[in-house]
Structures are given as structure tokens and as C-alpha cells.
Design brief:
By secondary structure, this protein is mainly α. The chain is built from 19 helices and three strands. The two termini are about 35 Å apart.
Amino acid sequence: MTSITRQQGAGLGRSRGRGPAAGDWSMATVGEWLRSPVAPYYMVLSSAGILISLGLVMVLSASGPRSFVDNGSSYTVFLEQLAFAGVGVVLAIVGSRLPVRAWKALALPAILLALALQAAVFSGLGIEFQGNRNWISIAGYSLQPSEFGKLALVVYGAAVLANRRKVIHRIGQATIPFVLPFGAVLVGLVLAGHDLGTAMIMVALIVGMLWTAGLPAKWFVGVGAVAAGGVAFLAAGSANRMQRIQVWLGDICDSPHAANGGCFQKVHAEYALADGGWWGLGLGASREKWGLLPEPHNDFILAIIGEELGLPGTLAVLLLFAILAYACFRIVSQSDDPFVRLATAGVMIWILSQALLNIGSVIGMLPIIGVPLPLVSSGGSALIAAMIGIGLLLALARAVPGAQERLGARPSRLRRTFSAVPTRRTAKGRR
């Protein structure tokens, strides 16, 4: 009798749409869930949430020694990152609740504001750091406008290209006014501040969105040649960039003086990954963060993850970005709204291209470019902008056909808990 009752209860749970009972998951059930319209929403939410949480833990671990030297406390950098994450959570929640039409309405104001802030870098508000002039100071806090410029490019580009989908085969209709003047001016301002890495991500974002919109492939041959030539010209015109390329291509880092010059970061990132081995040294046990590896909590946080958490830690980061990419692909393939498809593709290209540049730099597959690992590295502007992008992805996932109805029909655990508690009126009725 007990087993029959349990089976009936499990059947009732499934019939009410609460999903399979505990222990009832199978490959068929997982496949069915992955095909549901709400799967992309939860994959974006879970993968981004784990990446942010992992980032906070690793920022605490990696920044401790340098934070103590600079501020007298091992927790200063972490507490700042935690505060930025709190702001990002609030903005991501607001963004996830905005309807698609509201995001479309924000397209033009967003790109105009992004251009104004990026131009302010060259005013009295601008700050120069390590040869780059891409920050502004407001009320004692530094802000990197280019990080929010990526988000503005996504929203504005999606709005423009969605309205021009019937004439997208015409190069003039496809590029004006998305690429010319707004996109080109924004990228130009970033390059004027000597931030080649961020400019490369913006160019990849623009090109990827044009491809997603359906611009004929013949145009990308010329665009690719121009982009490659531009990167080569800018790299050749900078001694620092050429040194990084020589470090990447040559064997000068194999000498006894490899710790000097441009080899320093490359060599110590490799040391960190090698010391971590298969299973890592343990959380908090990194050796390279003690003044050896530059930027251990920022651009090279993946090296510290590999050193402390080993191969499982680095593979987990790759897996989480892969889940986020798959969720974006599902939103693009399931949606029938051109704006939703284009905006999703834009956020995906932004986050994944930046992650690839960062990971490639850390493991030695690419020259050191100097971009943070999205959602993981320390940095307020980068984290908040990326979290707003995640909020946009959640709003787009809610717009997938059938998702809003499923999400609205599923009561939250808190609501179910309180619904089970008898109210005062109910208690009086029972008496």
C-alpha cells in the first residue's frame, strides 16, 4: 500500500507541472526538459550565477596579498567586488523584468549615452592607466565607459538591424546607421584610448550581428581583410604590442631571463597552471598570487583558478561558458522576434569572444591582450555591464514563445510555502 501511494503521489506531482520527482531523472526526462521553452532561461540564470559566485570566491583568494599591501586589509578588493556584484544583481533583475519593447525603446538613448561617456575619457574626467586612457572618474569612483558601450552596441544594433531585415542584402542599409557612424565612432574613441582588446571585441560584436542579420557573405571577405590589416597596423605602431607578439611567437621566454620584460606574465601564468597540475594546490594555496603573477585577480584569474582548483576548476569555467553559449543558441533558434534573435547573438558574441581572448592569453594560445574574464575577473565596470547583459538575456529568454506562460504558471517556492500556512481568516473559518 505504501509503495502504491508513493507512486500515485509522484504521478500527481508530474501532472501538476512540477517536474519529475526526486530520483526520477533519466536521459529522456533531461532531453525533454532541454527542449522546453523555459530551459534557456534557467541555463542562463544558473551558468551566469555560478560564474559570478566562483569569481567572487577566486577574487577573495587571489587579491588578498596585494590588497593587504595596498590597503592594509586582505578583504578590500573582495568587498569592493562584492558591492559591485550587488549593484549588478539589482540591475540584472530590473533588466530581466523589462519587456522587449522597453529594451527597443532604450536603443537610441543607450548608444548616445555610450558615445558621450566614451568621449568624456578625453576630458578632464579621463584617467590614464598603464598606457590606456579608457576610464573616467565620477565622485571618486572610476568607470570604464567602453564596457557599457558593448551593451549599447548590442541593443542599438539589434533594434536597427531588426527593422532592416528585408533590405539587409544592401550594404548601405545594413551598415547605416549601425556601423556608420555610431559603431565606427565608438570603436574609434576606444582605439584613441589605446585599448585594442576592447576594440577587437566591439568589432567582433558588430561583424557577428551583421552575419546573424543575414548580410551576404561576400561582404565579409573585404571586412575581414580590412579588420586584419587594421589590427596589424595598430600592433606594429606600438612597441608594447609588438613585444607581446614576439613573446607569443618566439622562444625568448625560454631564456634564463624569462622573468624580465614581456615574458613575466606569460611565464608566471604557465607556472601557476603547471603548479596546479591535475587537482590543484587547494583553495587559497596559490603561490603565484604572492607578488609573482601580475593582475592575479583580474586578467589572469584563470591562472589562479588552475593553480588552486586544478584541471577540474578550469574545465568547469569552460563548461559554464559552453552552457551559456548553448542557452543563447536555443533562444536564437526558438524565437520568432528578429530583435530577440539579434540581441541574443550580440550578447553571446560579446561574452564569448572576450572569454576566448582572455583564456587564450592565459594559456599562451594568443598574445596577452589585456581583457578580463567576463563575470569572473575583478573590475566593477566589467562586472556590472556583463550582469546587465545577463539581465537582457533573461528578458529575451522570457520572450521565447511559451516561456512566459510556463514561468508565470510555476509558483515560486516561497509562494507555495506561504500558501500552505493558514491565514487568520482561514483559521477562524475552521474554528
